[in-house]
Amino acid sequence: METLGNKILILTDFTQVCYDSVSYGLEFCRAYGLTPEIFHVEESCGYDSLELQRIEDIVSLYNRKFNMGAVLKIRKGVLIEVIKEEVSSGGFFMVILGTHGKLGFQTLTGSLVTKIISALTVPILVVHSRKFVPIENTLLPIFENTVISELFSDIAPITRIISNSHLTIICLEEGRSNAEKFVSTYLDGREFNYSLRIMRHSDNFHKQLMKYCLDSNVNMLFSYPIKSDRIQLNMVYEQLIFNIHQIPVICKYA
Hints:
Oligomer: single chain
Strand order of the largest sheet: 3-2-1-4-5-10-9-6-7-8
Number of helices: 9
CATH class of the largest domain: Alpha Beta
CATH superfamily of the largest domain: HUPs
Helix content: 40-55%
Strand content: 15-25%
Number of strands: 10
Radius of gyration: 18 Å
């Protein structure tokens, strides 16, 4: 497997939500030995100078206190295009961004988070306002039509981060064979702490997943949509990404 870098791009628009996600991202990078760049795209609307100062202060604090090499970078241009260019040219293997959740008009027009997920080819860690905690329990849903070879390729960049956590692979009965194939092909024989959980069929798989997350103290979810030409994400995946319990979610548009 190709050796991966250790650079993380943390997006900000200099709002309270992004202050929280930058704080989470810096702690995340510190815990796992990663190098962060905090990145803002300046469009015509400008940005809040007070929030900019808060971000500058916290970056400076982490660099002094923890000897980190975090930088803050601002570029002008069209948001999605500039982010794509920065990810590609900077060699980042993952992006971190914050969200309010999918509320109000976003239920009709689609959130900015969804648009960024759809545009990038690297994994994205979506965080809410939760403070960072070390990743101990992760959850990966697998579906009947999940392409498992591509799924493993997608999560490979993250395995070094979650290698000491417990990974639960969860599926409905109709996805059992696919999940078992994923386990036998990619996990058996590896030094990886995992378990496979089969759930009964339900019209509300999302609620079952959320209940499991609370009962098992899951602190990171994987959310990977089925291959599609549509920009809109599957409802279950959107519910996971914008989950009401504010569990951080690693996602990637297929």
